[in-house]
Amino acid sequence: MTKSMNVYSAVAMLLLAGLSACDKNTVQQLPTEPLLGSRIRFFNFGVNAPGVNFYADNVKLTAIRSETGVESTNGVAYGGVGNGGGYSQIAPGSHQLTGRIAATTDKDLAIDTLTAALADGKYYSFFLSGFYNTIAKTVDAFAVEDPIAPPTDFTKAQIRFVNAIGNASPLTLYARNTTVGDTTAIGGAVAYKSAGTFVAVPVGIYDLFARYTDSTTNKVARTAVTFLGGHIYTIGARGDITITSTTATNRPFLDATPNW
Question: I need a labelling partner for 49 at 20 to 30 A (CA). Which of 2, 34, 38, 180 fits?
Answer without folding.
Answer: 38
